[in-house]
Amino acid sequence: MTTYAAPHPHVRHRLPAWTRVLLSGLLLWLATVVITFGTGNPNLVPTIILLGSFLVPVTFVVYAFGRADEMLTAQRIFTAFIYGGVLGVLGATVLEAALLQQPSGLLSYLGVGLIEEAVKLAALWALARRLPRYTLRDGMVLGAAVGFGFAALESAGYAFTALFGSSGLSLLNLVETEALRGILAPFGHGLWTAILGGALFATAARSRHGRPRLRVSLLGWYLLMVLLHALWDASNSIANWLTLLLTGTPTQWMLIGQGQVPAVTQSQVRLYTSINWGLLLLDAAIGVTILTIRWHRQTTTRPPAAPLPATRPAPQASPTALTQTATTAPRS
Length: 332
Hints:
By secondary structure, the protein is mainly α. It contains 11 helices and 4 strands. The chain has helices at residues 17-39, 45-65, 74-99, 105-127, 136-163, 171-184, 189-202, 216-247, 250-257, 266-295, 319-328, and strands at residues 134-135, 164-165, 168-169, 300-301. The longest helix is centred in the last third of the chain and has 32 residues, at 216-247.
């Protein structure tokens, strides 16, 4: 007798949700850019700005959501993305206008880092105050949502500003700005606030009531993120000065001393670009390494369990009763 194996059903493998979001959003953005260049329709400019600014942040939030537990619902993460981003941008704008009226040099980069990381942390803390429990990973996911919300709105502002060039509206500047910020988006605000979110939620493990608290460890992580933020923002200026220190000519230094901008050579441009990207890669590598290491050190805090009520030991039957039970028990 010949037997035939039943055919295996065809299993269709789908791409992860975050990949589908990234690819579909990228195609829509590219189509919008091409149609806008081809038709010259300015009504499509807001679509380019919104798609380009929110594509990468939303993609990474979807990616992070797939790694959270059931406590972080889609509604919580969406709320953190929108409310945290808006509150962070508004708070940073007000504080920077009040405290950094005359920014100069390294202090301005440190000031921006101190303010923006503080407002994002405050927004995250406010949004997480009613959570039933706290884990380090959930803190990272919720922190990433707040940080990427901030990054999306900030990128939209930079893209809008880039549209207005010295010779009028420049769609090319807008597209270049969005492409560059989209590539760098995963290694900026979302990464820094994710690390801060994990540090914030980790403080609940040492709290009496299982709630986040302001501790020295949290302050240390905050200052480290401020330094990473400042290095990221200052990479352009650092690359400029290192290039001049290494290759600057006496004529260039004389013009700089007179307050003029000297002409640069192609070799200096290449060196500046290499140093600038090298600093950004170093900053990103430090942040990603920290996030990866701490992701595998999950800390879970739960409310202390109520003590079980005391129970009396079950009474033991006497030998006589056992004998009577065995005698009267029915036989099978």
